[in-house]
Amino acid sequence: MERHVLGKVDYQETFESMKKITRERDDSAADQLWLLQHDPVFTQGISGKAEHLLSPGDIPVVQIDRGGQVTYHGPGQWVVYVLVDLRRAQKKVRQLVTDLEQAVIKLLKNYDITAAANPHAPGVYVDGRKIASLGLKVSRGCSYHGLALNVEMDLEPFARINPCGHPGLEVTSMAALTGTTDLPMDLIGHQLLDHLEKQLIPG
User: Fold this and answer.
1) How far apart are CA 84 and CA 91, in angstroms?
2) Rounded distance between C-alpha atoms, residue 115 and residue 21, angstroms
């Protein structure tokens, strides 16, 4: 599995790159994990409803092709895009979602944060507050999009939306939960990739 650490990248360009790679890849193409951050942007999934965008203000809204409703990406949040051939990996979409959730849960445990998944609402939660969101698209048997983990970021933009279509859903971050404003951002990103590889690669 290839890792690509991309830094801060434009959302629309990255979205187009994911689609292009998925459209053109063949059975021999390596699976990939892309670790990155985005400038402030709201992304609205294919079933997204306008009423969940409360007051986006000056933050752009991008309509995309993953499942789910609206979420926010911004600096201080690690995003990992997961480009995996599900047929080759012999995984169903539900198993991939579980793998992503478990990778985040195991990472958070390293920082004394007890998190859990919710079978009725994909993502990772700490005492009912969302700390990581998930959204996937599968095309030609391959996945793209992925997960977003709130590490040390401004959470105010989440108040401008109903996060993931859930009015009143509280959103949190590793910094908010640990009371630490000096988290090792780069280390956390690489640890997240480590946990994802362990979940995604059999054995």
Assistant:
1) 10
2) 33
